[in-house]
Amino acid sequence: MHQRWNEGVRNAAQLCRGIKQLGYPGGELAVQRHLRRYRTGRGHAPDPGPKPPSVRGVTSWIMTHPEHLRDEDADKLHQLRERDPELDRLTLHVRKFAAMMTGRHGDRLEDWITDVEQDSPAPLAALRATSAATSTRSATGCLCRTVPAPSRATSTG
Question: Is the pTM of this model over 0.90?
Fold first, then answer.
Protein backbone atom coordinates (compact mmCIF):
# COMPACT_ATOMS: atom_id res chain seq x y z
CA MET A 1 0.00 0.00 0.00
CA HIS A 2 2.79 2.43 0.89
CA GLN A 3 4.54 1.67 -2.36
CA ARG A 4 1.36 2.38 -4.34
CA TRP A 5 0.81 5.60 -2.33
CA ASN A 6 4.36 6.73 -3.10
CA GLU A 7 3.71 5.95 -6.77
CA GLY A 8 0.82 8.43 -6.71
CA VAL A 9 -2.26 6.27 -6.01
CA ARG A 10 -4.28 8.29 -3.45
CA ASN A 11 -7.69 6.59 -3.60
CA ALA A 12 -8.29 4.70 -0.32
CA ALA A 13 -10.90 2.38 -1.88
CA GLN A 14 -8.50 1.41 -4.66
CA LEU A 15 -5.63 0.89 -2.21
CA CYS A 16 -7.89 -1.14 0.07
CA ARG A 17 -8.93 -3.43 -2.80
CA GLY A 18 -5.26 -3.99 -3.64
CA ILE A 19 -4.23 -5.00 -0.14
CA LYS A 20 -7.35 -7.12 0.38
CA GLN A 21 -6.19 -9.20 -2.61
CA LEU A 22 -2.96 -9.76 -0.68
CA GLY A 23 -4.86 -10.99 2.39
CA TYR A 24 -5.60 -7.80 4.37
CA PRO A 25 -8.64 -8.59 6.56
CA GLY A 26 -9.52 -5.00 7.53
CA GLY A 27 -11.89 -2.54 5.96
CA GLU A 28 -11.70 0.62 3.91
CA LEU A 29 -12.33 2.87 6.92
CA ALA A 30 -9.16 1.60 8.61
CA VAL A 31 -7.22 2.28 5.42
CA GLN A 32 -8.67 5.80 5.23
CA ARG A 33 -7.64 6.49 8.83
CA HIS A 34 -4.17 5.18 8.16
CA LEU A 35 -3.75 7.30 5.04
CA ARG A 36 -5.02 10.48 6.72
CA ARG A 37 -1.57 11.18 8.18
CA TYR A 38 -0.05 11.11 4.70
CA ARG A 39 -2.70 13.39 3.23
CA THR A 40 -1.97 16.08 5.82
CA GLY A 41 1.76 15.46 6.05
CA ARG A 42 4.46 15.62 3.45
CA GLY A 43 2.56 13.40 1.01
CA HIS A 44 4.75 10.30 1.04
CA ALA A 45 4.40 7.17 3.12
CA PRO A 46 7.55 6.14 4.93
CA ASP A 47 9.98 3.79 3.26
CA PRO A 48 9.45 0.45 4.98
CA GLY A 49 13.23 -0.12 5.05
CA PRO A 50 15.00 -3.43 4.79
CA LYS A 51 13.32 -6.64 5.84
CA PRO A 52 14.46 -7.70 9.32
CA PRO A 53 16.44 -10.92 9.54
CA SER A 54 14.55 -14.11 10.32
CA VAL A 55 14.80 -15.82 13.70
CA ARG A 56 16.40 -18.77 11.93
CA GLY A 57 19.00 -16.49 10.34
CA VAL A 58 19.93 -14.78 13.61
CA THR A 59 20.10 -18.16 15.35
CA SER A 60 22.45 -19.39 12.65
CA TRP A 61 24.70 -16.33 13.10
CA ILE A 62 24.82 -16.90 16.87
CA MET A 63 25.50 -20.62 16.55
CA THR A 64 28.26 -20.20 13.95
CA HIS A 65 31.84 -19.67 15.09
CA PRO A 66 32.61 -15.94 14.62
CA GLU A 67 35.56 -16.75 12.34
CA HIS A 68 33.26 -18.67 10.01
CA LEU A 69 30.63 -15.94 9.62
CA ARG A 70 30.53 -13.96 6.40
CA ASP A 71 31.53 -10.34 7.01
CA GLU A 72 28.03 -9.17 6.07
CA ASP A 73 26.39 -11.55 8.58
CA ALA A 74 28.91 -10.68 11.30
CA ASP A 75 28.11 -6.98 10.80
CA LYS A 76 24.37 -7.62 11.00
CA LEU A 77 24.76 -9.67 14.18
CA HIS A 78 26.97 -6.95 15.67
CA GLN A 79 24.31 -4.32 14.93
CA LEU A 80 21.59 -6.48 16.49
CA ARG A 81 23.71 -7.12 19.58
CA GLU A 82 24.34 -3.38 20.00
CA ARG A 83 20.60 -2.66 19.90
CA ASP A 84 19.47 -5.56 22.10
CA PRO A 85 21.34 -6.21 25.37
CA GLU A 86 19.50 -9.50 25.93
CA LEU A 87 20.52 -10.81 22.52
CA ASP A 88 24.08 -9.72 23.27
CA ARG A 89 24.07 -11.65 26.57
CA LEU A 90 22.52 -14.67 24.88
CA THR A 91 25.26 -14.64 22.23
CA LEU A 92 27.95 -14.46 24.91
CA HIS A 93 26.42 -17.41 26.78
CA VAL A 94 26.22 -19.50 23.60
CA ARG A 95 29.82 -18.71 22.69
CA LYS A 96 31.03 -19.57 26.20
CA PHE A 97 29.15 -22.85 25.95
CA ALA A 98 30.71 -23.59 22.55
CA ALA A 99 34.21 -22.88 23.83
CA MET A 100 33.57 -25.05 26.87
CA MET A 101 32.34 -28.00 24.81
CA THR A 102 34.88 -27.82 21.99
CA GLY A 103 37.68 -27.31 24.51
CA ARG A 104 36.41 -30.36 26.37
CA HIS A 105 35.90 -28.47 29.61
CA GLY A 106 32.78 -30.27 30.83
CA ASP A 107 33.88 -29.57 34.39
CA ARG A 108 32.78 -25.94 33.78
CA LEU A 109 29.21 -26.88 32.86
CA GLU A 110 27.72 -26.36 36.33
CA ASP A 111 29.28 -22.88 36.55
CA TRP A 112 27.96 -22.05 33.08
CA ILE A 113 24.44 -23.16 34.02
CA THR A 114 24.62 -21.07 37.22
CA ASP A 115 25.75 -18.02 35.22
CA VAL A 116 22.88 -18.47 32.77
CA GLU A 117 20.32 -18.85 35.57
CA GLN A 118 21.63 -15.76 37.38
CA ASP A 119 21.74 -13.66 34.21
CA SER A 120 18.25 -14.77 33.16
CA PRO A 121 17.88 -12.98 29.81
CA ALA A 122 14.47 -13.53 28.30
CA PRO A 123 15.78 -15.48 25.26
CA LEU A 124 17.17 -18.12 27.60
CA ALA A 125 13.86 -18.82 29.31
CA ALA A 126 13.37 -21.94 27.21
CA LEU A 127 16.81 -23.17 28.12
CA ARG A 128 16.06 -22.84 31.83
CA ALA A 129 12.68 -24.51 31.35
CA THR A 130 14.22 -27.70 29.99
CA SER A 131 16.54 -29.99 31.84
CA ALA A 132 20.23 -29.17 31.77
CA ALA A 133 21.07 -32.60 30.40
CA THR A 134 18.68 -32.27 27.45
CA SER A 135 19.89 -28.77 26.69
CA THR A 136 23.49 -29.85 26.90
CA ARG A 137 23.04 -32.80 24.55
CA SER A 138 21.13 -30.85 21.91
CA ALA A 139 23.28 -27.73 22.08
CA THR A 140 26.50 -29.74 21.97
CA GLY A 141 25.38 -31.41 18.77
CA CYS A 142 24.75 -28.05 17.10
CA LEU A 143 27.73 -26.17 18.43
CA CYS A 144 30.31 -28.83 17.83
CA ARG A 145 29.43 -28.83 14.16
CA THR A 146 29.93 -25.06 13.87
CA VAL A 147 32.88 -24.45 16.19
CA PRO A 148 36.12 -26.16 15.24
CA ALA A 149 37.55 -28.55 17.78
CA PRO A 150 41.05 -27.72 18.99
CA SER A 151 43.81 -29.60 17.26
CA ARG A 152 45.60 -32.25 19.28
CA ALA A 153 49.28 -32.87 18.94
CA THR A 154 50.18 -36.51 18.72
CA SER A 155 53.39 -37.86 20.10
CA THR A 156 55.48 -40.28 18.14
CA GLY A 157 57.65 -41.52 20.99
Answer: no
